[in-house]
Amino acid sequence: MSRVYTEILQQLYVVNNFSQDFQGRTDILERVRNYIQGPSKQPLVLWGEGGCGKSSVLAKIASESSSWFPTKHCSPIRLVRFLGTTPDSSSIGPLLRSVCQQLCFLYQVPDNTIPVELSQLINYFKRLLEKTPADKPLCIFFDSLDQISSADGAHSMSWVPPTLPNHVKLVKKNFSFKKKIIYSNLDCFNITGNI
Fold first, then answer.
1. What is the three-state SS of 46-72?
2. DSSP string, 86-130
3. Distance CA 66, CA 33 (A)
4. CA max distance for the chain
């Protein structure tokens, strides 16, 4: 479990670095807040050209999103991965294993049942998402999908459920929208302007 703690701390360090001097972009923050609070069961894709501030926006969203849940009896969970910044966030197998370990800890599920084989790991990840309770809504933030290794079909995004379970939101960021066809069924918006 110490490896997953190290991963979480490294990811939170990246979030802090990207969000500490963040200013403006309130329209984008509001739009994502509406997604997180709304009924959509599809992942949200943020996209834009390189250098337009997508990582900073995602970090700010991740750092503020817990305040977007109105009830005192709600303890939202934020799971953040800036892909390609650590060994466990650079390819699909270690990424999903790390995410599953974190979710097992949060949902008090024994992590000794996490499969090694990738197709089983993907199914396990999807089943864990279905365990999300109403009082602990889950917000997943994946930054820089282009930075994860394309091996094992990671860029196909088949490891992400096209329809999310109840109480789960997923915000992912891509550097451009050249692969729009992959995301055609998802909620998407360009942070430098509307689609």
1. EECCCCCCHHHHHHHHHHHHHHHCCCC
2. SGGGSSHHHHHHHHHHHHHHHTT--GGG--SSHHHHHHHHHHHHT
3. 10
4. 45
Q: Decide if 7 contacts 85 (C-beta within 8 A).
A: no
Provide the residue type at 5 as one letter: Y
| pLDDT of 189 higher than 60 | no
Domain boundaries, the chain: 2-190
pLDDT digits (tens, 9 = 90+) for 26-61: 787 788 888 888 899 988 888 777 776 677 788 888
Q: Which residue carries 């079909």 as its tokens?
A: 153
Sequence length of the chain is 195
pLDDT at 188 over 70: no
Q: Please report how many Cα atoms fall inside a 13 Å half-sphere around the Cα of residue 142, on the Cβ side.
A: 25
- Does domain 2-190 match CATH 3.30.930.10? no
Tokens linked to 57: 């926006």
Q: Is the pLDDT of residue 17 over 80?
A: no
What is the residue whose two structure tokens read 């995004």? 157
pTM: 0.83
Query: What single-letter amino acid sits at 107?
Result: Y
* 144, 175 Cβ separation under 8 angstroms: yes
102 contacts 92 by C-beta, under 8 angstroms: no
